[in-house]
Write a structure and sequence with these properties.
- By secondary structure, the chain is α+β, with helices and mostly antiparallel strands.
- It is globular and about 60 Å long.
- A hairpin with a 5-residue loop joins strand 6 and strand 7.
- It has 11 helices and 8 strands.
- Strands 6-7-5-4-8 form a 5-stranded antiparallel β-sheet. Strands 1-2-3 form a 3-stranded antiparallel β-sheet.
Length: 347
């Protein structure tokens, strides 16, 4: 699923332009130097990653995002709370015991002083974290629209979906319509014993962002609706959706629960991310990128032989997917950073 980002140079031009007068709470004197220095280091790491080979690229990408996050924390963290972070805040729990990239498990690793980079970033942008049991790289891969375009050989059960709505009529004074979902949803067909209500409940637990357009029985209607899927499992329609506030187009409601970067230019559909780790909300995409890049960087640094084998296109089923993800990482991460910085702007 393609996301239309701004160019890398345009994003860095915006971020560099904030350094003389930082956004959010980074305008305060004690934060301004940290904000400016962290963004400078972030840009240098990311620019170097563009020229690096795949053997070292994930290390540079991860530290580029790590430094950008330090600036973002300085801008987003309210006065009186710690804004200087230390340590990664996450770890790979099975680095020495994996055969496939998708099996790498990333978990929270909080520090006693509550200043770890990952958890502080998640808090500052109101995102869930990974929790104690964490998530596999395969599961996290499924939360990134760019990564799902070229999936790993071991695909997760659930990946990002594209959702739109189509109005179909009026019942008892309320507009109803169909929720159109495009994506890989074959898992909903695994247990044919599930009732329609149970399948809907599963769908909404996996994709909590859909709650803003939750189907329910239309007033005056004896029919609850239908969950209709194509044979390939790539296309679903939920009929008889009661549209909130009597509006026909409900994609706007979905927008409020996700990034504007993930809506289409015509306002007809948006991308909804699956929740992982038992969270009731999806991870913010910048948290998903942090987790995946951290795992790849650890693999490259501490298991270089295994990493090189995964990059070998002649023997590795995941090599092309990894190459694609690393080519997309700089543009995606700098766009997400700029998006969050704009939301922090207090001017």
């Amino acid at each position: 699923m393609t996301v239309k980002y701004r160019s890398i140079d345009e994003c860095w031009r915006y971020l560099r332009g904030t350094r003389h007068r930082p956004v959010g709470f980074a305008i305060q004197n004690e934060r301004k130097k940290l904000y400016s220095s962290a963004l400078e280091q972030s840009e240098q790491f990311f620019r170097m990653s563009d020229k690096a080979g795949p053997e070292t690229k994930p290390v540079l990408l991860y530290y580029g995002l790590n430094q950008a996050a330090r600036a973002l924390v300085a801008a987003a963290t309210r006065p009186g709370r710690p804004f200087e972070v230390s340590g990664h805040g996450i770890k790979v729990s099975n680095l020495d015991d994996i055969d496939h990239l998708a099996d790498l498990r990333v978990v929270d690793a909080p520090r006693k002083n509550d200043k770890s980079s990952f958890l502080t970033l998640a808090r500052s942008i109101s995102s869930p974290a990974l929790r104690k049991d964490g998530a596999t790289v395969g599961e996290l891969w499924g939360t990134l629209p760019e990564a799902c375009a070229v999936p790993l050989s071991m695909r997760p059960k659930y990946e990002v979906i594209r959702v739109g709505t189509v109005a179909s009529g009026k019942k008892a004074g309320r507009y109803t319509g169909s929720l159109v979902i495009r994506g890989r949803l074959r898992e909903l067909n695994v247990d044919e014993g599930l009732s329609y209500a149970q399948r809907l409940d599963l769908l909404y637990r996996i994709y909590p962002g859909l709650h803003s357009v939750q189907p329910r029985q239309a007033p005056g209607s004896t029919r609850f609706g239908g969950l209709i899927s194509s044979k390939s499992g790539q296309y679903y329609t939920i009929s008889d959706v009661v549209l909130p506030n009597g509006r026909i187009h409900t994609v706007d409601d979905l927008y409020r629960r996700g990034h504007r970067l993930y809506r289409d230019s015509k306002g007809r559909s948006t991308i909804v991310l699956p929740a992982v780790c038992g969270n009731t909300r999806a991870l913010d995409p910048i948290i998903g990128w942090w987790s995946v890049l951290f795992a790849l960087s650890m693999l490259a640094r501490y298991r270089p032989g295994a990493w090189s084998s995964m990059l070998d296109v002649d023997t590795s089923a995941d090599a092309v997917s990894i190459e694609h993800l690393m080519r997309q990482a700089h543009k995606s991460c700098v766009n997400l950073t700029a998006w969050h910085m704009r939301n922090c702007d207090l001017s």
